[in-house]
Design brief:
Length: 352
């Protein structure tokens, strides 16, 4: 994709998106509602024309090529299976008429695909005789059975419960890898994007904010937007004003590089100690703030504690053993390497 853009009248749904996806790579498209994820996917599928830029598949310009002539498979959030046909027949039909595959070969391919998705035993059931998750597996199987070079998935698991989503995403990724498919996977769920993507493309208001590995996205976010969109809870960001090398805001002052307008720290980068001058790390911490515990949430192996500070509420991730009572006065501290600085326009200072 080179400089891809799409305007709907006055609405700029997509602006100047450039990215290349390697064969066999899975890229997660992540962004809030209306950020242009579906528009980008629809352009790739040929369901929408770009109003700027070029789309190339293996070097071949796709402009003007209709959907059915592109080597792409689409998985939508709302699947439409033929209700009167069995799972096996739904897949077989798609292969025979979509791919013009001989019957015996289509049936064999359909069976193989259902087996790979763990629903071989349901081959003879009609959609009404299956659970939502099983139906979604059939729909995914129908799209993937074609072995298209490019697989486009638009929120393929929305509508399923959390446990099933996690199970299914593991299976989908395993299947995509096994087939060697190149895939774009749209989701607004940051955890899902980080889990499925070899790289994650973060979109905001039609612009590509960052395209990087999940580790880079988390550890070196390109912007404040990315930093606060990814992570659960996301990065804490404190606004301040910089003078004489120090960024100061309500209740804090921290040494900061030129241009800094805000400082960010992940919940796990903050330490929590009983209030007092000696609190915090042995070096005293680069950032220190006093506050009061508001709530403490037990999340499996860890706790997330929300602390009200003069700079606003901050989330702190601590071990499960460190229970703290609401109302407790605490001091928060963070070491210098845990800090991320942002300029006034939201870009991370030091980002490439
Ligand atoms: N056919 C259309 N006509 C006019 N505006 C459109 C059309 N399709 C999309 N848009 C606008 O383009 C922008 C991007 O929409 P898009 O559906 O790509 O976002 P999205 O990130 O997929 O959102 P969601 O997660 O809600 O599906 C939105 O502002 C949307 O209102």
């Amino acid at each position: 994709m080179v400089g891809l853009g799409r305007d709907f009248g006055p609405v700029r749904a997509l602006a100047d998106v450039t990215m290349s996806v390697a064969p066999g790579e899975i890229v997660a498209l992540l962004g809030p509602s209306g950020s242009g994820k579906s528009t980008l996917l629809r352009i790739c599928a040929g369901l929408e024309e770009a109003t700027a830029g070029r789309l190339l598949f293996g070097g071949a310009d796709q402009a003007g090529i209709p959907p059915h002539q592109r080597d792409v498979a689409l998985v939508f959030q709302h699947y439409a299976l033929y209700p009167h046909l069995s799972a096996l027949d739904n897949l077989t039909l798609a292969l025979r008429y979509g791919r013009k595959m001989p019957k015996a070969q289509a049936v064999a391919r359909a069976r193989e695909t259902l087996d790979m998705l763990g629903i071989g035993a349901l081959a003879r059931r009609r959609p009404a005789q299956m659970s939502g998750g099983q139906r979604q597996r059939v729909a995914i199987g129908r799209a993937l059975a074609r072995r298209a070079r490019v697989v486009l998935l638009d929120e393929p698991m929305s509508g399923l419960d959390a446990k099933l989503r996690v199970e299914l995403r593991v299976e989908i990724v395993a299947l995509l890898r096994r087939l060697g498919s190149t895939a774009l996977f749209v989701t607004h769920d940051q955890a899902e994007a980080m889990a499925v993507g070899d790289r994650v493309a973060v979109l905001d208001a039609g612009r590509l904010e960052q395209l990087d590995t999940p580790d880079e996205i988390y550890d070196r976010p390109a912007s404040r937007f990315v930093a606060t969109f990814v992570g659960s809870p996301p990065m804490n960001v404190l606004d301040g004003a910089r003078a004489d090398g120090v960024l100061a805001g309500p209740g804090f002052a921290v040494a900061a590089p030129a241009g800094a307008a805000a400082v960010g720290v992940r919940p796990e980068g903050l330490r929590l100690a009983p209030a007092g001058p000696a609190a915090g790390s042995p070096d005293g911490g680069a950032l220190r703030l006093d506050g009061t515990v508001v709530v403490s949430e037990r999340l499996g192996a860890e706790r997330v504690v929300y602390v009200q500070t003069p700079a606003g509420p901050l989330a702190v991730r601590i071990g499960a053993e460190g229970a703290v009572q609401p109302g407790t006065a605490v001091t928060l501290s963070a070491a210098a390497p845990a800090l991320t600085f942002f300029a006034g326009d939201g870009t991370r200072i030091g980002a490439a």
